[in-house]
Write a structure and sequence with these properties.
By secondary structure, the chain is α/β, with parallel strands linked by helices. The protein has helices at about 15-25, 40-50, 60-70, 80-90, 105-115, 125-140, 150-160, 200, 210-220, 220-235, 270-280, 295, 310-320, 325-340, 350-360, 370-390, and strands at about 5-10, 30-35, 55-60, 75-80, 95-100, 120, 145-150, 175-180, 240-245, 250-255, 260-265. Strand 5, helix 5 and strand 6 (about 120) form a beta-alpha-beta unit.
């Protein structure tokens, strides 16, 4: 078997580390061509020693020097800067790109992978939220293949009919049911949410994830971003997407068909399952995840999300209702608000308030090009920062 060549963007993050864990279980099947990191240079050096990629990418010259020093005379070439990220996804020898940078920084390299016609394993949901129309167009024009890594979308993908081409009606699909764990504050008294600390917010009951997505799970903004992600991935209208709380995180999402059938994907809440699915697709391979023992799992329960508790979820549905750049605004304001919250600068409930303020100011803007979108993203960040400055504690 000729090995499948991979570039892993965001290799030092939670998804990156899980990807390398799966890859290490199948050394005959994969070859790592490039790894990228940001702050964690030591960890990147360790990964380079283990996987011997041709390239490693860090953000700047200082970190490049530091990485080079750690690597000594290893065969890995150290590159730096944003252009290098775009370079290592588009190399002719690269077959697949794991897009696992967090936040808006992941957009440009994901677009470069789309234009280069690669198979894209998309974890960075912000790419679709910020620039869904442009990204899907680039995937189409570049002849790229898109495989969702986000566990819900990977579950939907697995539960869709083979050869699904973006026409729900033609395939007899009525709705997509996205499951949500409800995060750490599902049952906490609503009156006490004002006092939530970053430490409490990042302590997710079922999943181990990066800090930003952990806060997004607590506010359910993560599910909101995923509703927008599902809209673009599966060409589903907002009314064809429903969110259902499922605290055990065993069913990762479902597809409902016109005949009343509901197909679901179940597994342990371990990202190595969707990662292995996408890495091996259309084949299957071991992920290192324990087998699901349903009798031991016991009861699976479901609830309707309470919008009073999770206003961010409603904001995301609202953003999708109009053909504007509201999702871009929402995503940008959210990144600013979450960073400020993690920094102890604002209170937990100032997160939805910041999003609301940004949406009110900029929610009806339109974009004809990617440059327009980037400008709106910047403007939304400025509005959010201004709001945050006025509500710092
Ligand atoms: P982490 O914060 O754990 O990792 C982020 C990665 O991106 C790290 O490698 C980090 O480098 C790198 N990075 C951070 N900022 C920049 C930047 N400005 N430019 C380039 N690289 C950067 O996040 P996760 O792995 O949890 O999430 C990654 C993406 O996957 C997110 O979009 C998230 O929404 C999505 N996702 C994650 C899931 C999960 O279970 N974790 C589930 C579904 C989706 P360094 O660490 O070296 O600083
Ligand atoms: Mg998810």
């Amino acid at each position: 078997m000729t090995p499948h060549n991979l570039t892993i963007l965001g290799a030092t993050g939670t998804i990156g580390v899980n990807t390398l864990d799966v890859v290490a279980r199948h050394p005959e099947r994969f070859r790592v061509v490039a790894l990228t990191g940001f702050n964690q240079v030591d960890k990147l050096a360790e990964q380079c020693r283990q996987f011997q990629p041709r390239y490693a990418v860090v953000p700047d010259a200082a970190r490049a020097t530091a990485l080079q020093a750690l690597l000594g005379n290893s065969p890995t070439e150290v590159l730096h800067g944003e252009a290098a990220l775009e370079q290592v996804v588009a190399l002719p020898e690269v077959d697949s790109v794991m897009a696992a940078i967090v936040g808006a920084a992941g957009l440009k390299p994901a677009l470069a992978a789309a234009k280069a016609g690669k198979r894209i394993l998309l974890a960075n949901k912000e790419t679709l939220v910020m620039a869904g129309r442009f990204f899907m167009q680039a995937v189409h024009d570049g002849g790229a293949t898109l495989l969702p890594i986000d566990s819900e979308h990977n579950a939907v993908f697995q539960s869709m009919p083979a050869g699904y081409d973006g026409d729900l009606a033609k395939h007899g699909v009525r709705r997509i049911l996205l499951t949500a764990s409800g995060g750490p504050f599902r049952t906490r008294a609503v009156e006490t949410l004002a006092a939530v600390t970053p430490e409490e917010a990042v302590a997710h009951p079922n999943w181990v994830m990066g800090k930003k997505i952990s806060v997004d799970s607590a506010t359910m903004m993560n599910k909101g971003l995923e509703v927008i992600e599902a809209h673009w991935l599966f060409n589903a209208k907002p009314e064809q997407i429903e969110v259902v709380i499922h605290p055990q995180s065993i069913i990762h999402s479902m597809v409902e068909y016109l005949d009343g059938s509901v197909l679901a994907q179940l597994s342990h809440p371990d990202m190595r399952t969707p990662i292995a699915h996408a890495l091996a697709y259309p084949e299957r391979m071991a992920a290192g995840v324990p087998w699901l023992d349903l009798a031991k799992t016991g009861t699976l329960t479901f609830e309707t999300p309470d919008i009073r508790r999770f206003p961010c979820l409603q904001l995301a549905f609202d953003a999708l209702q109009t053909d504007t750049t509201a999702p871009t605004v929402l995503n940008a304001a959210n990144e600013e608000a979450v960073a400020a919250f993690l920094d102890h600068r604002i209170a937990y409930l100032t997160i939805p308030a910041t999003l609301d303020a940004a949406m009110q100011r900029l929610g009806s803007a339109r974009a004809d090009s990617l440059d327009d979108l980037v400008a709106i993203d910047q403007e939304a960040r400025a509005v959010a920062r201004q709001y945050i400055a006025g509500h710092t504690r």
